[in-house]
Amino acid sequence: MATMTQEETAPAVRRIQLARQTLVFALLLMLLVVAFTVSLCVGRFSVPAGRALELIWQGISDPSRELTAIDERIVLLVRAPRVVLAALAGAGLAISGAGLQGVFRNPLVSPDILGISQGAAFGGALAIMLGIWGFPLIAMVFLCGMAAVILVGLLSRINGRSETVTVILSGLVISSMFSAVVSLLQFIADPNTSLPAIVYWLMGSFATATWERTLVAAPGLILGSCFLWMLRFRLNILSLDEAEARSLGANTIRERWLVFCLIAVIVGSQVAVSGIIGWIGIVIPHAARLLVGHDHRALLPAAAVLGAGFMVCIDTLARTATAAEIPLGVITALVGAPIFAALLRHHYRERTGS
């Protein structure tokens, strides 16, 4: 019996791979729905799952009706916007991390490498110290995050070109500069009023989530993620060697900076409403890559769903584990660091074959 050639087996292998990716994606969606439901139910005031889902359906079908019962107000006005915002933020950070790791061809890269979070942190700390709240604070945070990316672009551009190494180094320089300025603001802030607010905001939290804040952050998070997914084929090319990418017709510098700008929009929108939340953009893409592989066509949506579910679970833990809400940055570091260490060991064993 003649053996099958590589050309004959490739379609079958591709079908098996697609079926596996579809199954993984379906399981991740189911886990996300479970995380949503649990987060809506648990808290100091528990709500049965059936009642919570019924309230969500009533809120969708008749959004203008008056909310009178206490469980209606808790589910629809307190927990629902928080869960939605956490899911959008987690998805945005995860897809940003996956995109950056592909562009830089480095699994250790996260959105922090461009200085976006630190620039946005400076905007938020300055706004809090000046007594600016609400939409002006969100606008200042977003603009400072975008300013950080612009500064990285200007600093990394040498002889009309921006190489990968210079972008990374420029991002570290700008990040360190903004971190130093934030520390200076903390030093001169009023220790009785603005300083505690700055410190708590920098550690990340969805405690102030409302439907208004969700609507402010949603356009940047959703549109940025969607446009990044539309570049999934280009990300596959950009993840190749520089010479190979150019031979396939990619304008690596222009397309790389397009990805950077989209990530700046996503991360800036997230930091503007919930402060700095670390580790999501570096841990979740690794986990998604283990589940669906390196192809960005499957990696980006898998990372987004996994990031959304992970963030919802972390936020639920933050507000229910103790009487006082734990800042998200603390939990993501405590949970993310061991997971990342395990993923690194797994990755190393795969590469060495041991």
From TrEMBL:
Transmembrane segments: 23-43, 83-104, 124-155, 167-188, 218-237, 257-286, 298-318, 324-344
Subcellular localization, as worded in the UniProt entry: Cell membrane
Pfam family of the protein (one): FecCD
Any one of the GO CC terms: plasma membrane
Domain of life per record: Bacteria
GO annotation, biological process: siderophore-iron import into cell
Record's keyword terms, sorted: Cell membrane, Membrane, Transmembrane, Transmembrane helix, Transport
Membrane topology, as annotated: Multi-pass membrane protein
Main localisation: membrane
UniProt GO MF annotations: transmembrane transporter activity
The family this protein is said to belong to: Belongs to the binding-protein-dependent transport system permease family. FecCD subfamily.
Annotated PANTHER family: FERRIC ENTEROBACTIN TRANSPORT SYSTEM PERMEASE PROTEIN, MOLYBDATE IMPORT SYSTEM PERMEASE PROTEIN MOLB
Name the UniProt record assigns to this protein: Iron ABC transporter permease
Species: Rhizobium leguminosarum bv. viciae
